[in-house]
Amino acid sequence: MNKAILSVLGHDRPGIVAAVTGILFDLNCNIENVSQTILQTEFSGSFIVTMPQDLTWDDLNERFLEILTPMGLHVHIEPLLKKEAAITARQSEPFVITTKGPDRRGLVAGISEVIATHGVNITNLQAVFKGGNKPGDNIMIYEVDIPIDIDQQALYRELREKAKSLTLAISIQHRNIFETINRI
Q: Is the pLDDT of residue 15 over 70?
């Protein structure tokens, strides 16, 4: 089976998900994964789909351009190829790292650099910057997979040091604890 990854970007409005999924349904594609969000006023969606054997890349792209271009949306489609794993899968535990503090350049770069240095994978990142100096208004939430075979205390120490240097408050919790505490 052919698999594709589709990225759709543009100014948010009602009906975008319906348009994209309607096209995929009409072309007999199966949606396997979706990640969609609104970033300020902009729609951002990624879809992994399985395509029928008789559907060409050109036909898929043409149909998306025909429907989405008039909506002011941009689509990028490319084949999802099986790739050799860049790193050997390591056993890991899911954690949530939350930072709060005044907005300024380099916050995500500083924290993500420490995370990467320890071989930790960021699986989801949400950052809401409203500007200003009210720490509660600027929040970053990193969902990460921390390998069980690393020095976790060194990771925590370096994250706290980096957060302090960036004037950020930081919290590091196992995802199960985070979800339990933040349940509505």
A: yes
Q: How far apart are CA 140 and CA 107, in angstroms?
A: 9
Residue 162 lies in a domain: yes
Q: What is the count of structural domains for the chain?
A: 2
| Proportion of the chain above pLDDT 70, given as a percent | 90
> Domain range holding 52?
2-79
Task: Say if residue 74 is in the same domain as residue 97.
Answer: no
The C-alpha atoms of residue 55 and residue 32 are separated, in whole angstroms, by 17
In terms of C-beta density within 10 A (0-12 exposed, 13-18 middle, 19 or more buried), how is residue 106 classed? exposed
Q: Quote the radius of gyration of the chain (alpha carbons, Å).
A: 20
Residues 6 or more apart whose CB falls under 8 angstroms from that of 3 comprise 32, 48, 49, 50, 51, 79, 80
- In-domain check, residue 87: no
The one-letter amino acid at 169: A
> Which string of DSSP letters, residue by residue, matches 99-151?
EE----TTHHHHHHHHHHHTTPEEEEEEEEE--SS-GGGEEEEEEEEEETTS-
| Cβ neighbours of 16 (radius 10 Å) | 20
